[in-house]
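Per reviewer request, we include the raw input and output of the structure prediction for the construct analysed in the revised manuscript.
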Amino acid sequence: MSTVQTWGKPRLIEFPKLGNPAEGYISVSEQNTLIPFEVKRSFWTYFTPESIVRGRHAHYQTEQVLIAVTGRIIVTTEMADGTIELFRLEDPNKGVYIPPNTWHTMQYSHTAVQLVFASSIYDEADYIRSYADFQRVWG
């Protein structure tokens, strides 16, 4: 199932921050502007204990953008070539793009709420849950 395609690499996406401190802010992403794919699924995580590392998987096809709506999330990504990057999300107008074939983990502050936009609906067959399998498939 390893068809080689080029999606780019993990990177920060900055959404517009419209407003001011007196009234508050709004950030917006409209179809085909900042998110580099059509969003087919959205989900959020919250109340994750700080000692827990989530993620620990890669996808064959799914692309995602992760946003810390509140709190702090440390996202670590690893590409098939071994490139490792660390992203600290703590501004609700910034997200990190996770392309397919990218191993990723997330660690949260207890108050963190993570919003995820995904390019596909949930399909367990799209997940690579074993790090050894990730290295075998993409390495």
